[in-house]
Amino acid sequence: MIIRGWHIDGFGVFRDRRTEALGPGLTVLYGPNEAGKSTLLAFIRGVLFGFPDKRSRGKQPLYPPVHGGPHGGRLFVEHDGEGFTIGRSASSRKNAARIRDADGKDRPEGELTRLLGGADRTLFQNVFGFSLWELQELDTLTAESVRDRIFSGAIAGAGRDARAAADDLEKAARGLYRPDGRARNHRMNELLQEIRDIDDELAEARTAARAYPEKLQAEAEAQRAVEELRGELDSKRARKAALERLLRLWDQWCAREDALAELETATGYSFPRTRPVQPDPALTDRQRRAAQLRESLALQRQRLTDRDTRADELAQAKTSLAHALDALGGDWTAEGVEAFRMTIPERETIRAWEHDREAARSRVAKAEEQHDAAAKRLKEAQDQEQKLQDALDAETDPPPDLATLRAREDALDRLRAELTGLESRRRDAENKRKIADDRGERVADLEAQQGAGLIAAVALGLLALGAAAVAGGLATGLAALGIGAGAVLVLFGAALFLAQRRGRAAQAQRLAKARRDRDDAAEAADAAEAEAARYETQVAQSAAELGFAAVPEEAERVQAASALRESLEHRRRLDAQVRERADAAKVVEARQREVDAAEKALETAQQARDDLEADWAAWKRERGFPAPLTPQGVRDFAQQIEAARRALSEKHSTERDLEALREAIAGWEDAARGILAERGRNTDAHGEALIRAFNATAEAIAAEQDAYARVAAAEQAIQREAGHDSEQAAELRATLADGDVQTWRAELGDLDDRLSDTQQRHEDAVARHQAAKSDREAVEQSDRIAELETRRNQIVDEMGRTYRRWQELTAAQAMVAETLEQFERERQPAVFANASERLGFFTQGRYVQIRQDPDGQGFSVLDSDLNPIAPIDLSRGTREQLYLAVRLGLIEEFMGRGTALPLVMDEILVNFDPERMAAVARELGRFAEDRQILLFTCHPEIAERVTAHAPNSRALAMTELGAEAVEPALS
Amino acid sequence: MTAFRFVHAADLHLDTPFDGLARLGRDVPEKLRDASLQAFDNLVAETLRVGAHALVLAGDIYDGPERGLRGQLRFHAGLKRLSEAGVRVVMVHGNHDPLADGWSAIRAWPANVTVLPSDGVASVPIHAEGREVARVYGISYARRDTTDNLARYFPAHTDAPFAIGVLHANVGANAEHAAYSPCELSDLRAADIDYWALGHIHRYQHLSEGAPWAVYAGVLQGRSPKPSEQGAKGAAVVDVAENAVQRVSFAPLDVVRFAGLDVDVAGIRDIPELQTHLQSAADSAVAEAGDRQLILRARLTGRGPVHAALRGDDAVADLRAALQEASGRVWWDRVVDATAPPIDPDAIRRRGDFAAELLGRADALAADPDARAAFLKRHCRPSDRRLRGFVEADDTADESELLDAAVMEALDRLEPADES
Known about the structure:
The complex is a heterodimer.
Chain A: E1 2-11, E2 14-19, E3 25-30, H1 37-49, E4 72-79, E5 82-89, E6 97-101, E7 106-107, H2 110-115, H3 121-128, E8 129-131, H4 132-135, H5 139-142, H6 144-151, H7 153-158, H8 162-176, H9 187-210, H10 212-267, H11 281-295, H12 297-328, H13 334-339, H14 344-393, H15 402-449, H16 454-476, H17 479-545, H18 554-623, H19 631-678, H20 687-721, H21 726-737, H22 741-781, H23 784-842, E9 847-852, E10 859-863, E11 868-869, H24 876-896, E12 903-906, H25 914-927, E13 932-937, H26 940-949, E14 954-957
Parallel strand pairs in A: 3-13, 3-14, 8-12, 12-13
Antiparallel strand pairs in A: 1-2, 1-4, 4-5, 5-6, 6-7, 9-10, 10-11
Helix pairs in contact in A: 6-23, 8-23, 9-23, 10-20, 10-21, 10-22, 11-19, 11-20, 12-19, 14-18, 14-19, 15-17, 15-18, 16-17, 19-20, 23-24, 25-26
Chain B: E1 4-9, H1 27-49, E2 54-58, H2 69-84, E3 88-92, E4 113-115, E5 122-128, E6 131-138, E7 163-168, H3 185-190, E8 195-199, E9 205-208, E10 213-216, E11 234-241, E12 244-252, E13 256-264, H4 271-289, E14 293-301, H5 306-310, H6 315-326, E15 330-337, H7 345-351, H8 354-367, H9 369-380, H10 392-395, H11 399-414
Parallel strand pairs in B: 1-2, 2-3, 3-4, 6-7, 7-8, 8-10, 13-14, 14-15
Antiparallel strand pairs in B: 1-11, 5-6, 9-10, 11-12
Helix pairs in contact in B: 1-2, 7-8, 8-9, 8-11
């Protein structure tokens, strides 16, 4: 690649500066200080590899545009004969290059890498484009990227970066393991830590497992302690239960004592305290009966009260009965009243009598009403008939009957029709006559046409003229003309003659037809006229029949029709009055029949009513009811009997209640006297006195029985506490009989405290036993050791795999690194051989060889006496010549590997003496034969010297590098 | 002669931790913790089911001196059930549970149970129908490091109707197992033993079938994904009649089964295809395991385009998780990616570039074991006492395999991604 020129939009002192004056070979660009030589070098580096961003401020110059304009620009380069523009903007955040080909088409960014032959910024800066300061630094030649590209060029050309691979391997290996014991951040360390943790846990778990016999022993001892304490606890609990039992029985025992004392007082018996006491069966029976009587004590008192009340009620009932019988009359006795029954059917019969009697009276009243109405309607019909007869009698001039009038009406209608027909026939005859006349005229016309012969004459004339013409032509010699004209005339005349003959025949035919038509029409006209005459005769006859003197005119006919319609209407009204009078006569007859029927019905109803009243009177007599009573009166009388009967019934009922009360009172008193007698108290007392006596005795019996019950309850409690064991019960009784309850209570209180303590010790022992048991079971069932060992083995396995992987990575890294070292060591001589030769040329043989240091990190020179001299020990100029020679050697090496870039040097010759400068210039000239070298200097004499000694070189003043650009900035 | 039956089991390793497993989910560890105990319960049940007269246990009842209490109690309970059923139990201790080491929570063995001593071969008669039908000879390990040839202590002549020798030993110097009580088959034949009930080798096998029979019952429950622990595990059921073995049959009694899948990724384009391939490959192992929990470990080998996908972050872990999600009773323990990029080392060597230089360097190390050992010691064998005991096996692993893996690791990073 060579640089053909550039366009600087804005960079340092440059703004819109453009040149395309550059080309291959050695070009010396000279200008005074601050002309922008270093700026140009930085611009070229920046466009090719990127401008330093603002973070580099202070470390290297950024060359912001002093005179404005976009910060950046373009380089015009040529590669393999093809032109490209590489542009870059320093102000762009992305700082990406933009590559366009000669046609202005954008190329992908990767194209730049191809143009640069894979060189990066460092390589370019250190080897291809450097300043005097950079020339003086050995480090710039031993930077890794330079070394790799020099010595490991094969890798760069074939695939991935070997040093990056080595770094990658080392990084991967270090992530897995680092032999340095202080390093912590690697996988193996994590695994070791996990192992340590698990080992700690394992040791703990194994210790626990080994203590199994001790755990068994501890569990057994705990079990024994629990059993001992449980025995002690049971003993104390038994004593406590016995004391509690005695104390629970104590109150009942005391109650038993009291009860027995009471019994002894009441009965005079003596009861042994330590034996069970059985109740007296006779006392129990007596107590039961007395209790029953006491339960009915209130009832007895109520009976006594009720007995007196009932006696009063009986007296009142008797009085009421006497009053009721009096109200019924003398014939009614208590027996009669008691026997009287007004049954429901009888009540219904009375209701039926009442209904029937009312119905009979209603029927009579209704028959009377109907008779009166019929008589009234008969009178109205007779009046109407008379009125109609009077109207008929008043008619003096009745019209003819309806049939006669209708016949006249029909005759008038026929006459009107005949007159219309006559008129029609007259018009028909007139028309037909006119047609016959027209046809006669037609016949006359045709007959006149029959005599005409003009056309035939003309035709014949023409024939003659034609013949003459023919003859004339022949005679005059004008044969042709004469014959022709004559022939035409002959032919025309013949044609006319023939036509005339055909017209005459047709005319004859038309005439014959016209004559037939004329005759037919005359005949038809004659017939029509005869019909009209006949019709006229008929009309005259019809008019005469209707009384007209002659055939009437229209007005006369209308008047006759109007008179006929009035007669018809009069006749119809008269006929209607006759029919109405006949109908009225029939109505009178019907009304008379109705009056007759009503009279008969009235008589029937009156007879039925009278019969019913007779039966009703018989019914009352039969049942003893007074004759005047109506049905309602009968019912009222029966109610009186019912009241008397209820009074009688009340009297009987009260008598029965009183008797029952007296019996119950006597029964209770007999029983009470019996119990009193059993207790040795005979008495004749009755009523309340007897009750009071019985009560006192019953209470004494109950007190004895209660004492026995208390003794029995105490005995039951003793039996219950003794578990129904007679021996224990006897023992309890004996203990209770001799008991000291205060001592028992004191002992129980003390025992509670001791029991609580024993209980607590027992619970503690149980807990200890349970813990020991759980401890033992946990160890027995624990799979912790197995789990930990499995995990440990897994970690150990992972450690093994990690270690193995680390070995692989480390071995791989070592192999790559050692191979890289070997590469550097063995491939450097090619570079140094070239450099040695050039150094000898630069120094006129003063130094003859450059040799790599044993560590491969540096080099030294051998002078003509083959003494090794370190670069630092060389003079400044010679050292710069050494580094220049090495660079040129490197560039040749790169050229061989496809990296061909322009060599851009900034003021590198200032420290060279004239001879060596000339030598360097010659070498640069030769070196530039197939390369591009741009040499910046501020010394015109250097420019002159170089161009003088370097064939085909040229010098360009910085001021000649293009005027202000006119091309717009690359966006 | 009365026919009788006995069951021969060994290497119970009760309540032993599983080894070599990746970190597992929640359910599986619980099953694993109980697996050896449940397998022993299965052994007791099987002994009762087949109506055996005796159960012979050939050592390594426990896994180490730290005999788990849970295992001891479970063992005692099982023996008690057998004893109550009239089954004679005879056992010896092996290198994992020598008599002199460890501790015992068991104060007294149930009747019918005999632990043979370590101070010499002792014998116990087996009776059936009131007559002695066999005699069991055996000797326990006193200490773990018992390297004597214990087979030589067994009697050359016996008057037993049928002699059973119980021995925990490495017969034939099996390299997969430690050389405890090493002996040869000839040593076994020298004794007057009809059936050698052997323990120590974890894979069920018949060393000799007849004159005498020599059978390794194998471990009762597989304990790791190692090849010797894979497949069905259980006990031998031996039928004897006329003083001779009539039939030896294997009874699978394991609860959890390990299986391994080796899959060559050649031709497999991507991870979904690889997953399908693995699931398909797992089907036969699943069918063989029956109702058991199956733990699968897949090892991916070979070169193929899927290698690049497997190199992605967490790609293998995600693949394992996907397999696990799609599986039922199968637990995918690990997917081991031993694949190599689809590169041609010879082509690289011809390029003469950095990778070629690296391969040349690796070739030189491969050709010179001393140089290789020195290289690995220099870079990969840190003297880190923290790791002592954890990574010894890895340090003694195949060095050339390690070197090959390292070269592939380096090439993976050096070769262009689009070539792999």
